[in-house]
Design a protein that fits this description.
By secondary structure, the chain is α/β, with parallel strands linked by helices. The protein is globular. This is CGGC domain-containing protein.
Length: about 120
């Protein structure tokens, strides 16, 4: 059984229920196509917020480091990153990009996408 997780923007929680990500996973469609029926969605985490709200960079943020440690302990192999990682110009948030790099340095594969809009 493979374990995967989802990373989203903390501010997306203001308007997002996660239903699109979860529906795509449950129906094995969009970016979750090809996963086996026994694949477990074992983690759903957020970033540490924008610089205006949290001046700590992800590498310095004890909470983000603890989350990534937990992902490793839980043997999460892949993290999907929601569309909320993109700004209005289609550019990826630098904080999310840094967290993705941290995940990859721990051997966790990052897939940029969950569901299609």
């Amino acid at each position: 059984m493979e374990k995967i997780g989802i990373l989203t923007c903390i501010h997306a929680n203001n308007v997002c229920t996660g239903a699109g990500c979860l529906k795509a996973f449950n129906h094995r469609k969009d970016f979750f196509k090809g996963y086996a029926a026994d694949t477990e969605l074992a983690a759903f985490m957020t970033c540490n917020g924008c610089r205006e709200d949290n001046p700590e960079e992800p590498e310095e943020d004890a909470g983000i480091r603890e989350k990534i440690d937990r992902l490793s302990e839980e043997n999460i192999l892949r993290m999907h990153v929601g569309v909320c990682r993109l700004d209005d110009n289609g550019q990826e948030c630098s904080r999310i990009a840094e967290i993705c790099s941290m995940l990859e340095s721990r051997g966790i594969t990052v897939i940029r996408g969950t569901h299609r809009e």
